[in-house]
Amino acid sequence: LFYFCFNFILQYGRFMDDLRIYVKGGTGGMGHPRLGGEGGEGGDVWLVAQKKMTLKRLKDRFPSKRFVAGAGANSSLATLKGTKGKDCEVNVPQGISVTRDDGKVIGELDRAEDRLLVARGGLGGCMATNFLPSRGQRLMIHLDLKLIADVGLVGFPNAGKSSLLTKISHATPQIADYITVADLPGLIEGAHANKGRGHKFLKHVERTKQLLFVVDVAGFQLSPTSPFRTAFETVILLAKELELYKEELRTKSALLAVNKMDLPNAREKLNEFMEQLQSPQDYMHTLPKNMIPEVIVNFKEIIPISAHSGEGIEELIMCLRKVLDEESEKKIEDHQNQQLQIFKITKTVK
């Protein structure tokens, strides 16, 4: 198969990653007291994950953002047992977390065709309810999209992520499977505290299998009034932002792409950077304490590249594929070992 790269560019002017909707299960049908007939149950509201669906498309199709299931049929002389109301199925993107207004998590939909019940229909009228029906569940829910991708690009603005993604998208080496790459908005210092929509960025990082740090070999400066950061300081800051947002991200598998190797003196700067990465503790004294992460990122691979000239792009792609395959194999092996342990315990108990 050829290599494919799906570009998820989050431009907040047109991208929606959170939507609040109203859902209501159908009311049950009336019972028939004289004949002892039972009303039909109200329909349920289900969320169904679809590959090509987006929250923006959902909102555009249903601007009222109200989803109500059908009412159950009343019991009658012709049909003593009323039929169940029609279910309401709401197509949503895959990779969403569903929560109530109070923050309680209802569930998650990670794969296409996953289904989640969000509002049950009411019971039909019967002898126990004096043949009166009950209403269906009614609630406001949040659909919170967290991109699921194999690789998430992590880097400050001007690191060259967009150019890199363009190069990757046009590469077609023969490899075993496709890779999905999420290009996320430029991270800035203080993202963990929600500066520059930081939480919107970091929550998407959580659901990528592999992080790809992208740094400018020549260093980075956000604005004329911001401090200049070397490539080494950039890596340390990125690691700190991830750590402050969620500690579990400290140990997430990561690669490092050192970009803009086409610039003058890039090789000298790379050599200095590599020396710093090999012995990071020797260079920490130059940084403020609040910049230093508790755990220094241990990159599986460090690949010098130029998104401008294409240098190192093919090697980077192959490294990503190799790491993803290794992690997939490890996951399968861990699952098999876990099943074996369960089998041994069960056999011992018997």
Protein model, in words:
One of its GO terms (cellular component) is mitochondrion. Residues 13-148 form the Obg domain. By secondary structure, this protein is α/β, with parallel strands linked by helices. It folds into 2 domains: 18-145, GTP1/OBG domain (Spo0b-associated Gtp-binding Protein, Chain: A, Distorted Sandwich), CATH 2.70.210; 151-332, Rossmann fold, CATH 3.40.50. 25% of the residues lie in helices and 23% in strands. It contains 6 helices and 14 strands. The chain has helices at 55-61, 161-169, 198-205, 231-245, 266-278, 313-349, and strands at residues 5-9, 18-24, 45-50, 66-68, 88-93, 96-100, 105-109, 115-119, 138-145, 149-154, 179-183, 208-216, 254-259, 302-304. The strands form 3 sheets. The protein has a 6-stranded parallel sheet, sandwiched between helices. The chain has a 5-stranded mixed sheet with strand order 4-2-9-6-7. Strands 5-3-8 form a 3-stranded mixed sheet, with no helix packed on it. Strand 6 (96-100) and strand 7 (105-109) form a beta hairpin. The longest helix has 37 residues, at 313-349. The protein is elongated and about 90 Å long. It starts with a strand and ends with a helix. Mean pLDDT is 84; it is low at 1-14, 173-177 and 190-198.
